[in-house]
Amino acid sequence: MAKYKIAWMPGDGVGNDVMEATRLVLDAMQFDAEYIPADIGWEFWCQEGDPLPERTIKILKETDCALFGAITSKPRDEADEELAPELRGKGLVYFSPIVKLRQLFNLHTNLRPCKAYPGNPLNYRDDVDLVVFRENTEGMYGGVEFHPIPEGVFNALCANPKMEKFRAKGLDNLALSTRIMSRQGCESIVRQAFEYAKKHGRKSVTVIDKPNVLRETGGLMVRTAREVAKNYPGIELWETNIDAMCMWLIKNPQDYEVLVAENMFGDIISDLAAGLVGGLGFACAANIGDEYAVFEPTHGSAPKYDGLYKVNPMAMLLTTKMMFDWLGEAEMAERLEAAIAKVIADGVVGTYDVKKDGKPNTTLEVAQEVVKQLGVVPA
Ligand code: IPM
Ligand code: MG
Predict the structure, then answer these.
(1) Which is the closest atom of ligand 1 to the Cα of 73?
(2) Which of 80, 81, 170, 256 is most deeply buried (CB count within 10 A of its CB)?
(3) Per-residue model confidence as pLDDT tens digits over 328-368
(4) Other C-beta atoms within 10 Å of 101: how many?
(5) Are 377 and 331 in contact (CB under 8 A)?
C-alpha cells in the first residue's frame, strides 16, 4: 500500500495543465502516494447543479490531503444560464467550492509564502521573502449575506442608530455582507504566524487590519494579536492598516517577514505580495486545518489558456512543495524547491510570462526541466 492517499482535483481550466505538470514531477520523485481523482468545479455545477458533489467530500474524508488545480467562478446570472436546462428553476444557487471546502473541513489557515527566487526576471525586488497568514473561514468571506435583507435581520440591526439612514432606501434595495470574527479565529491565526516566525528565525510579525474604522472586528484582531505577542518576547509585533500596508509593500517589501490578516484583507494582500515575486505564476498556497489540508495555487483557472499548456506550472509545483512540508517530507520539499530554484536561476526554460526573448516553453516542458534538476544539492 502507498504511504499516502492524495485526493487529486484538477478542477477547471488550466488546473488540468498544471496538475499534469505536477504529476510528472511527483512520479519522477517516486513520491509514495496513491492519487484518487475527485470531481470539482464548473462542469459539475453545469451538469449536476453542484460544483462540489457529495462523492468528492467522501473522497476527501478518506485521504491524507488534497492537491487542487484551479476553479472557475462566475457571477450569479451566468451561473444560472449555464446550468443544464432540466436543473433550471429549481432554486439551485452556485457557490464557490473552494470557499465551501475551507468551511466544511475547517481549513482555518491559508498560508501563502511569497519569495523572490534569484534570477526570476519578474521579481519586483530580489530581496522579498515574506509569508502571508490569512484567516480562511471567518470574517468578510464567512458567507453570512443577505439581499434583500429580511425584516427580522433589519430590525435587529436597528439596535444601532446608524441604521436609520438606510431605512428610507427600502429593504429590497439593501444588500448586507457581514464581517464576523471570533477571538478564537483571531488568536489561532496570529499564534500560527508567531509560531512560524519563531521556527524560521523571523524577527517580526505584522498584523494587518483597520481598527481605526472597523473598531470592533479590527479592534478584536489587533488586541488579540497584542495578547498573543506577549508569549513571543524575541519577535516584534507591527500593526499596520490595510491601506497603508498596500503602500508599504510597494515601497519597502523587503522589510516584511510574516504578515497576518483576516480573510478578505489576507486575500487582497496575498495577491499584492504575489505580484512582488513574479505574479500568479509563482504564487503558491495551502489551506490548512487541524487534520486536513488542501493545496491549491493562488491563481484561477484562466479559461482562455485551458488545454494550451501555456501557463507557468511553478505556482503548482511550489504548492506541491508545501504539501511535502505539511506531510513532514522535509527532504522531498527541499529537493523540489532546489530544483525549482535552479530552473528559475538558469533562466533557459520558462513559460511565456517569464521568457521575453525566444520561444516560450510549455507547462510540461518546464516541469520536465524541473525533473532534470531534481538532483541538484539544496542550497
Ligand atoms: C483566493 C481566491 C478565492 C478567495 C476565490 C476564488 C473564492 O481569490 O484563493 O485567493 O477569495 O479565497
Ligand atoms: Mg484571492
Answers:
(1) 6
(2) 256
(3) 999 999 999 999 999 999 999 999 999 988 899 999 999 99
(4) 25
(5) no
Number of helical H runs and strand E runs in the chain: 14, 12
> What are the backbone dihedrals phi and psi of residue 297, each rounded to the nearest 5 degrees, phi first?
-60, 160
How many angstroms separate the CA atoms of 185 and 109, rounded?
Answer: 9
Ligand 1 pocket (Cβ < 6 Å) reads 73, 96, 98-99, 267, 298
Give me the sign of the Cα torsion angle 125, 130, 136, 142. negative
Q: State the CB neighbour count (10 A cutoff) for residue 85.
A: 6
pLDDT tens-digit map of 182-195: 999 999 999 999 99
What CA–CA distances, in Å, run from 278 to 99, 128, 133, 162, 259? 25, 11, 19, 44, 19
Nearest partner of 267 among 312, 208, 195, judged by Cα: 208
Helix, strand or coil for residue 129?
strand
With 0-12 / 13-18 / 19 or more C-beta atoms within 10 angstroms meaning exposed / middle / buried, residue 334 is: middle
Among all ligands shown, which has an atom nearest to the Cα of 99? Answer: 1
- The single-letter code of the amino acid at 56 is T
Q: Determine the distance separating the centroid of ligand 2 and the alpha carbon of 272, expressed in angstroms.
A: 10
Distance in angstroms (rounded) separating the CA atoms of residues 334 and 9: 24
pTM of this prediction? Answer: 0.95
